TrEMBL record, chain A:
Residue intervals of the Transketolase-like pyrimidine-binding domain: 4-177
Keyword Nucleus: no
One term of GO molecular function: magnesium ion binding
Full protein name: Pyruvate dehydrogenase E1 component beta subunit
EC number: 1.2.4.1
Keywords from the UniProt entry: Oxidoreductase, Pyruvate, Thiamine pyrophosphate
Xref: Pfam families: Transket_pyr (PF02779), Transketolase_C (PF02780)
Species of the source: Kribbella italica
Automatic annotation (TrEMBL), chain B:
Lineage: Bacteria, Bacillati, Actinomycetota, Actinomycetes, Propionibacteriales
Record-linked CDD domains: TPP_E1_PDC_ADC_BCADC
Record domain Dehydrogenase E1 component: where: 10-274
EC numbers on record: 1.2.4.1
Protein name as annotated: Pyruvate dehydrogenase E1 component alpha subunit
Organism: Kribbella italica
GO molecular function, one term: pyruvate dehydrogenase (acetyl-transferring) activity
Length: 322, 316
C-alpha cells in the first residue's frame, strides 16, 4: 500500500476538487510556488486563474473570496500562519459567516480557509504558534481539525463542497504523519461526524488533530482501557458519537491544544455535565489560561498539553480522584 | 436614463428617508437609521449608469443605493420594520438590506469592508466570462480603513471591473475629513494606478456622466475607476444623534450645505407640472408601501436562527 502523508493528502484533495469543479479556485500568499507545499503542482496543472497568488493583503483577499463566493465560485484560501486568522476574524466571523442569515437566506458563502501548520511549529514562538480553532467554533463557523491523512483528504473535500464557510486547521504536528492508504479508498468524510479511533472500556479520551497520536500512544500503555474519540469537526460537534462512547466508559478526559478558559475542552466538559452520566468528574488537559507560546524549546513544550499531562489525567479519573 | 427618471429616483429616496425617519420617531422602526438625505444624487446617478445585472455593495447609510438599484420600496420599508415580507425577511434591517436578484450584494455595517467583497465578485464574474461590473459605495471615513486600501491594490493590479464610489460628505460621524485624511482622497486612489476623479455629488447628471465613463472602462477590461463624489449630509449621522446632542456643525455650515439640494437641482430641470406629477406618483407609491409594510407579519421567534447555514443538514 502506498504511504500518504497528511500534507500530501490535503494537496491531493485540493487538486481533485480543482479538477472536478470549475468553480473551485485557490488563493493565498506564495501559492504559486507552493511555499507550504499545500498547493504543490497545482499552478502548473490549473494555471493562474485557478491558483491565484495574492499580495500580502489578508483582510482584502479574505473578503475578496466572500465576494467571489457570492458570485458563484468556491474559493479556498491558504493562510501561511495560524495567527493570520486573528487579522481576518472580522472577515470570516462578521462577514462570511453572517451573510446567509442577515440576507434572509438569499446567498451562500462557500469559502474554505485552510491553515497548513497550526499550533506550535517548534521554535516559531509567540506570534506563530496559536491554534485558534476554539474561536471559530464559538462564533459558529464550521471548524475542522483532521488527525490523519485519510481524514485530511476527506474533510478538506467536504469543506470545499460545503455551502458555508469552513475553517480547516491542519496542525503542524500532524502534517508529517504518513499512513498506508489505498488512493482508491480516499473519500469525502462528512463534517460533524466523529470517530472512535481506538476502543476501550474505562475512559473516553477526546483528542483532536495531532493529539490523537498522543492519545493513541497513551492507550497503548493501558491496553483495552482507553477509548480514543476524535471528533474531527470541532463545530458542529458530534455529540451523539461522543455520547455513545461515554455511555460505555462513563469517564471522560479531553486533551485540547488551545487555551483553557472558554476553549474546546471547556465545551466538551459542559456538554458532559449537561448530558452524560459520569462516575467521576471529567478532566481537561489544555494550554494554560491565556497562554502565549514562549520560544525556548523547554518552555514551548511546558505550555502545550502533552503525553505526561494526559497520563496523569487518565489515572486520576480511573482512580476516581477529584 | 432621462432627466425625469433621475428626478424620480432622488425624490423617491428623499421621501422614503423622510418617512423612515418619522417611523423611527413613532417607534415602527426600532434601532434607528442613518439617513441619506442630501446625498441622493450619488445613488441615483451611479445606479442609472448600471445594467440590471451589474452589482453593488452598500454601506450603513445604504437606503438610497438599494432603492436606486431597484429595490421594492414596500419590501425595503418592511425590512426596516423587521417584517417577514422585508427584502431580507426581517433578518437584516437598515444596515444589511440586500436583494441578490437585483444585484444588491448587501449593505454592510463595517466601514470599508465591502470594497473587497465587490472586487472579489467582479473578478469572479469576469472569470466566468460575464461582463458584469461591480460598484462599491463607501464614505470618506472608509478611506482610512486598511482593508479598503488593500482592495484598491488588488483591483488595480488585476484590472478588476469595479468602480469605487467614495461619498465624501465631509464627516465620519463627527470627524471632519480634513482632520482625518492626510493627502487627498483622489490622490490616494491615483497612487494605486487607477484613474480617480472628484465630481459634484449633488448633481445627478454629473454623477451619471462620470459613472457611465467609469462603467464603460470597467466593462471593456480596463480596470477600476475611483470616483470621489463631494456631497453633504443634511441630517444627523444617525437618528440617535439628537439624543446624544452632538454639536459639530455650525448653523451656518448646515445652511450652506443644504443650499445645494439634489432634489432641487434635478427638479429644476423639469417643468412644474411634470415635477408635480412625479411627486404625486411617489407619494402614492410610498403610501402604499407604508401600508404594505405595516400590514405584514412579524417573523416567528421560533425561526430566529433560520438561514444561519446554507447547508442546514450538517447542523444538528
Ligand atoms: C470599521 C468600523 N469602524 C467604526 C464603525 C462605526 N461607524 C459607523 S458609521 C461611521 C462613520 C463612517 O463615516 P463615513 O465612512 O465617512 O460614512 P458616512 O457615515 O459619512 O456616510 C463609524 C465610525 C464601523 N461601523 N465600522
Amino acid at each position: 500500500m502506498p504511504k500518504l502523508s497528511y500534507l500530501k493528502a490535503l494537496n491531493r484533495a485540493l487538486g481533485d476538487e480543482l479538477a472536478s469543479d470549475e468553480s473551485v479556485f485557490v488563493l493565498g500568499e506564495d501559492v504559486r510556488v507552493a511555499a507550504s507545499n499545500l498547493t504543490a503542482g497545482l499552478f502548473d496543472r490549473f494555471g493562474p486563474e485557478r491558483v491565484l497568488d495574492t499580495p500580502l493583503s489578508e483582510q482584502a483577499f479574505t473578503n475578496f473570496a466572500t465576494g467571489a463566493a457570492l458570485a458563484g465560485l468556491r474559493p479556498v484560501i491558504e493562510f501561511q500562519i495560524p495567527s493570520l486568522l486573528f487579522l481576518v476574524f472580522e472577515q470570516i466571523a462578521n462577514q462570511a459567516h453572517k451573510f446567509s442569515l442577515m440576507t434572509g437566506g438569499q446567498c451562500q458563502v462557500p469559502v474554505t480557509y485552510v491553515v497548513p501548520g497550526s499550533g506550535s511549529r517548534t521554535g516559531w514562538a509567540g506570534q506563530h504558534s496559536d491554534h485558534p480553532y476554539s474561536l471559530f467554533a464559538h462564533v459558529g463557523v464550521k471548524t475542522v481539525v483532521p488527525s490523519c491523512p485519510a481524514d485530511a483528504y476527506g474533510l478538506l473535500l467536504s469543506a470545499i463542497r460545503d455551502n458555508d464557510p469552513v475553517v480547516v486547521f491542519a496542525p503542524a504536528g500532524a502534517l508529517g504523519i504518513r499512513d498506508d492508504v489505498e488512493y482508491a479508498d480516499l473519500k469525502a468524510v462528512p463534517l460533524g461526524v466523529g470517530q472512535v479511533v481506538r476502543e476501550g472500556s474505562d475512559v473516553t479520551v477526546v483528542a483532536l488533530g495531532h493529539l490523537v497520536q498522543e492519545a493513541l500512544a497513551v492507550a497503548d500503555e493501558l491496553p483495552g482501557q482507553v477509548e480514543v474519540f476524535d471528533p474531527r469537526t470541532v463545530y458542529p460537534l458530534d455529540v451523539d458519537g461522543l455520547a455513545a462512547s461515554v455511555a460505555k466508559t462513563r469517564r471522560l478526559v479531553v486533551i485540547d491544544d488551545s487555551n483553557r478558559t472558554s476553549g474546546f475542552a471547556a465545551e466538551v466538559l459542559a456538554v458532559a455535565a449537561e448530558r452524560f452520566d459520569l462516575v467521576v468528574p471529567p478532566r481537561r488537559v489544555t494550554r494554560p489560561d491565556g497562554a502565549v507560546l514562549p520560544f525556548a524549546l523547554a518552555l514551548d513544550r511546558a505550555v502545550q498539553p502533552g503525553r505526561d499531562h494526559l497520563v496523569a489525567a487518565i489515572h486520576a479519573v480511573l482512580k476516581g480522584d477529584q | 436614463m432621462g432627466t425625469v427618471d433621475l428626478y424620480r429616483t432622488v425624490r423617491l429616496i428623499r421621501r422614503f428617508e423622510e418617512r423612515a425617519i418619522s417611523f423611527v420617531r413613532s417607534g415602527e422602526i426600532v434601532g434607528g437609521i442613518h439617513p441619506y438625505v442630501g446625498q441622493e444624487a450619488i445613488a441615483a446617478g451611479v445606479c442609472a449608469a448600471l445594467r440590471p445585472d451589474d452589482v453593488i455593495t452598500s454601506t450603513h447609510r445604504g437606503h438610497g443605493h438599494v432603492l436606486a438599484k431597484g429595490a421594492n420600496p414596500a419590501r425595503m420599508l418592511a425590512e426596516l420594520m423587521g417584517r417577514e415580507s422585508g427584502l431580507n425577511k426581517g433578518r437584516g434591517g437598515s444596515m444589511h438590506a440586500a436583494d441578490f436578484g437585483l444585484g444588491i450584494l448587501g449593505a454592510n455595517a463595517i466601514v470599508g469592508a465591502a470594497g473587497s467583497i465587490a472586487t472579489g465578485a467582479a473578478w469572479a464574474y469576469q472569470r466566468q466570462g460575464k461582463d458584469i461590473v461591480a460598484v462599491s459605495f463607501f464614505g470618506d471615513g472608509a478611506m482610512n480603513e486598511g482593508m479598503l486600501l488593500e482592495a484598491f491594490n488588488l483591483a488595480a493590479l488585476w484590472r478588476v471591473p469595479v468602480v469605487f464610489v467614495c461619498e465624501n460628505n465631509g464627516y465620519a460621524t463627527t470627524m471632519p475629513v480634513e482632520s482625518a485624511v492626510a493627502g487627498s482622497i483622489t490622490g490616494r486612489a491615483r497612487a494605486f494606478g487607477m484613474p480617480a476623479f472628484t465630481i459634484d455629488g449633488q448633481d445627478p447628471e454629473k454623477v451619471l456622466a462620470a459613472t457611465t465613463a467609469a462603467v464603460g472602462r470597467a466593462r471593456s477590461g480596463r480596470g477600476p475607476t475611483f470616483l470621489e463624489c463631494t456631497t453633504y449630509r443634511f441630517d444627523a449621522h444617525h437618528t440617535f444623534e439628537h439624543r446624544a446632542r452632538l454639536n459639530y456643525r455650525s448653523t451656518e455650515e448646515l445652511s450652506t450645505g443644504r443650499s445645494r439640494d439634489p432634489v432641487e437641482i434635478q427638479g429644476a430641470r423639469l417643468a412644474a407640472e411634470q415635477r408635480a406629477a412625479v411627486d404625486a406618483e411617489i407619494e402614492a407609491l410610498l403610501d402604499a408601501a407604508a401600508g404594505i409594510a405595516m400590514g405584514s407579519a412579524h417573523p416567528d421567534p421560533a425561526a430566529a436562527l433560520e438561514f444561519l447555514y446554507a447547508s442546514a443538514e450538517v447542523m444538528r
